[in-house]
Specification:
Structural class: mainly alpha
Distance between the termini: 80 Å
Number of strands: 0
Largest sheet: none
Helix content: 40-55%
Shape: elongated
Radius of gyration: 37 Å
Length: 211
């Protein structure tokens, strides 16, 4: 492992040549402390000392015979691949709106309280208008949203408010970076004049007296 360097590698190779078990154990603990000192970023990792002991056995090619405060790893356990996580396979009927909105609509249709049902309808209408604006880059009329919502819910949901969505405005890339007006010329002076600097020593005809 390159992050520990060749000197740690030689130390671990020396551990393999030590025949006294107690001496080998003491030297193994010393190498662990050195490995932690050379890699302080591992201290931010949860259970970093366990990782150091695993690296110790890995560098020794799993030939080191010492006692570890953690389960001693094997070549098979470190090379074992984790089980793949099951990914939810959901196929929404209206893919442009997503599966989560269908879940909200189903919950709204099961709601018996008319106020909560109306709140669900208003929230669904706002999201539908927002999604249309994000995808098509233009504002859609409320009648179109109501027509699509009625077709999805068989006319069971009707929104009463007018969902306001800010119109999409593309950002211009050719705008002035500074934003503070016209840039100064390369050799333009701050005083606005290109002549000599004003003399503030009492007069324009002042001459230095020679002694």
């Amino acid at each position: 492992m390159r992050e520990y360097g060749r000197h740690v590698q030689k130390m671990i190779e020396h551990l393999l040549s030590i025949e006294d078990p107690e001496r080998r154990q003491r030297n193994a603990h010393a190498v662990i402390e050195l490995m932690g000192f050379l890699n302080p970023h591992l201290k931010n990792v949860e259970d970093f000392r366990h990782k150091l002991w695993d690296h110790l056995f890995l560098i020794s090619d799993f030939k080191l015979k010492v006692k570890s405060p953690y389960p001693i790893p094997t070549r098979e356990s470190l090379s074992e691949k984790p089980q793949p996580l099951p990914y939810p396979k959901r196929h929404p009927k209206h893919s442009h709106l997503g599966k989560n909105l269908e879940v909200v609509i189903k919950k709204a249709l099961k709601e018996e309280n008319p106020d909560k049902r109306l709140g669900f309808a208003n929230a669904v209408a706002y999201y539908m208008k927002l999604a249309y604006n994000n995808w098509h880059k233009e504002i859609v009329h409320d009648d179109a949203i109501q027509s699509e919502l009625s077709s999805i819910t068989d006319g069971q949901l009707t929104f009463t408010n007018t969902p306001y969505v800010k119109a999409f405005r593309p950002q211009h890339e050719d705008r002035d970076r500074g934003g503070y007006g016209k840039q100064r010329g390369k050799f333009q002076q701050r005083g606005g004049g290109g002549g000599r600097r004003p003399d503030n020593r009492g007069g324009s005809n002042f001459k230095k007296k020679r002694y």
